[in-house]
Design brief:
By secondary structure, the chain is of the alpha/beta class. It contains 22 helices and 28 strands. α11 crosses α12 and α14 runs parallel beside α17. It binds 5'-O-[(L-methionyl)-sulphamoyl]adenosine. The site of 5'-O-[(L-methionyl)-sulphamoyl]adenosine (MSP) has 19 residues, from β2, α1, α7 and β13.
Amino acid sequence: MSAASSGRFYLTTPIYYVSDVPHIGHAYTTIVGDALARYERMRRGGESVFYLTGTDEHGEKLERAAQAKGMSPQTFVDLIAEEYKKTWQLLDIRNDDFIRTTEPRHEKVVQALWRTMADKGDIYIDRYEGLYCVGCENFLLEKDLLPGNLCPDHKRPVEKRSEESYFFRLSKYQQPLLDLYARCPDFISPQRRMNEVRTFVESGLRDLSVSRSSFQWGVPVPGDPRHVIYVWIDALTNYYSALQDHPDKAAFWGTHESPQAIHLVGKEIVRFHAVYWPAMLMSAGLPLPRKILAHGWWTVDGEKMSKTLGNVVDPRALQADLSASALRYFLMREIPLGEDGDFSYDALLQRYNSELANDLGNLLNRTLAMVEKFCDGTARRWTEDSNPDARGERLKLRAETVRGQVEAAMAELQPQKALEAIFSLVRDGNTYLEQEAPFTKVKTNPRGADHILYNVLELLRWLGLLLEPFMPERCTELRRQLGLTAPEVATWPMEWGGLPDRTAVRKGATLFPRLDPDRQKELLDKWRAARREAELKAQATAPAKVEQVAAKVAAAPAHAGAEPLAEVTIDDFRKLDLRVAKVLSAERVPKKDRLLKVELDLGPLGKRQVVAGIAELSTPESLVGKSVVLLCNLKPAKIGGLLSAGMILALGDEKLLGLAGPDREVPPGTPLR
Ligand code: MSP
C-alpha cells in the first residue's frame, strides 16, 4: 500500500519524552515526517493532510527528572515542551497539531479507552514481580540484561519491583496480531522490522502490566486512583486523542476497511506500535493504523547519543549557522529511511558546500547574474516560431523523468531517493548551462541566449517545487528571486513553461553561502565547544545518581569522573589483560571526527587494530612510535564501522588530557600489574 493511495493522509511522529531538549535524533524524525506531510499537501491540498507531533509528559522518568531539577513535574514538562515547540518552529516544521499528554483533552480519552478495554474484560488486577528499567519505562527479562544487571539500552541497573498492577490481556491478541501481519504484509516497514515483530509475537505474548502504584505522575486508573496508567498506554493513545476535536476525525482515523494513520517511529519503539497499540485498538473495537514506518538511528562517532557521553548534537546550533533548510537536507539526504547513520560535522559541511552551495546555489546565482547582464533582468519565454530546441526539450524531458522518480520515491516513503534524483537534475542544469554557453552565444545570437536562460530559470522553478517539501524556507526564497509573485503557493502538478514571459528576476543574497576553510574550522570549533560545554553544564546541574555513574562506566569504561566507583577485588582486576603496546601506524577514520584507526605492536602477542576516540589528543603522525597502554582482552567490537580489538587507555574524564603510557622504554607486550 503506498502512501499516496486515496483518502486522507494522517501522519504522526512519536511523542517525545520531555526529559531533555530535542537533539538531532528527534529532529530527524520530525523533519522526515514534515517532508512527507508537505509533499502530500502539495499533491492533495492542505485539508486532506494532518501531521501530528507532540510530547510524552508522564511517567516515573519525568517525575524523577523534575525532582532532580527541584521543580514540580508540571512546571518542568511545561518548560521542556516549550523547547520542543520552539525547536520545531526553527526547523520549519508545519505540524497541524501538537499534543501533550498532560492536556485534559488527552487524559480523558486515555481513561475512556481504558474503560472500553476493561468493559471488554481485557483488564484485570494482579501482582507484578520483575526487573524494571526506568529509562525504557518497561520491565525487562533477565536474559536480555548486560552483566551487572544493566539495561542494554540505557546501561543503567534495572530495579527489582514487586507491586500490585493492572494487566492487559495481551496474550489474547497473539493470534489476531499474527493474522493482521499476514493480511497486511506491509503493515510494518522496512520488511526486516516486520520479521522481527512477527518472530517476537510468535514466541508468545505475555499479558502486559498496565498500571503503576509506586509513583503518582500519570493519568489515574478510572475507579482506582491508587494507580496511574502505564505511560506507554497513555502515550500511544495520543494518536487517537489528538483527532477527537477535529471536525473530520473519522475520515482521518479511517475505518476497519480503510485505515489511515501512518506512525513514523524510530526502530527501537516498533514493538510498542506494532504489538501493544494494535492490540489495544482491537480490544477497544477501533480501526487500526495503516502502517508503522520505522527509521534507523543516528549515532555520533559510532556511539549512541547520550548526555553521559557528551556527544549530543544540538539541531538548533546547526540551524543557526547553516539554515534549517541545509540541516533538513543533510539529514534526509545522508541516510535511506530505515537505515542507521553516523552523524559527522565533516560530512555535513561537505554536503553543504558541494551540493547546496556549489551545485544548487551556484546554478541560481549564475543564472540570475546572466539574466541581469544579458537580458535586462527579465526572462523571455520562447515563442511558437522559435526553433524547437529553444524550448529546452532535453531539460524538459529530464525534469519530467525526475518528477516521476520523486513521486515513486515518495510513494515508497523514501525521501533520500527523491533528493538524490533532484540533485542529479541540479547537476544537469549546470551541465546544460556549460554546454549551451549563453555567455558566448549572447554575442552572436542574443535571442538564442535568452531562450537558454529562460529554460534554466524554468528548471529552477521546477527545482523550487520539487525541493519544497524538503527545504521549504529556501525554496520560498528561490521563487522570490525568480520573480514569482505568489511564492508561498506551491502545488505539485507542474507544466514545463509555467514561468511567465518576461518575469523580472530579483537577485538576492545567495541561497547557501559557500563556507571557506577558515569559516569551516570556525564552525567546527564552535559546535564542538558548545557540545562540551553543554555536557559540563549537565553534569554540574544534575547531581550524579548511582545509575548515571553505572551508565558512564558501562558506556565509556575509561572515565570514572569525580565519582568513586564500587570496590573491586584483586581477582576482578586480574581479569584485565593490560599491556604496553607500540603504535605502528595511525590514521583518521573518514567522517568520524573523534576516531583514529591505530595499528599496534604487542610484541609476542602480535599486531592489533584498535579504533580509539583520541583524535582530539594527537595527530596520527605524532602517535606513531609512541608506547601506550592497551586493554587487550576487551571484547572486540565494531567502532565507526571498523573492527577494534582492545582499548587504548587515556587520561581524563569527559575531556581527554593525555594518554597513559610507561615512564621508560619497555618492550611491547610488557604486562601491567
Ligand atoms: N515517548 C516515547 C515515544 C512514545 S510514542 C507513543 C519515546 N520518546 S523519545 O523521546 O525517547 O523519542 C524516541 C524517538 O525519537 C525515536 O523513536 C526516534 O523517532 C527519535 N530518536 C531519538 N533518538 C534518535 C536517534 N539517535 N536517531 C534517530 N532517531 C532517534 O520513545
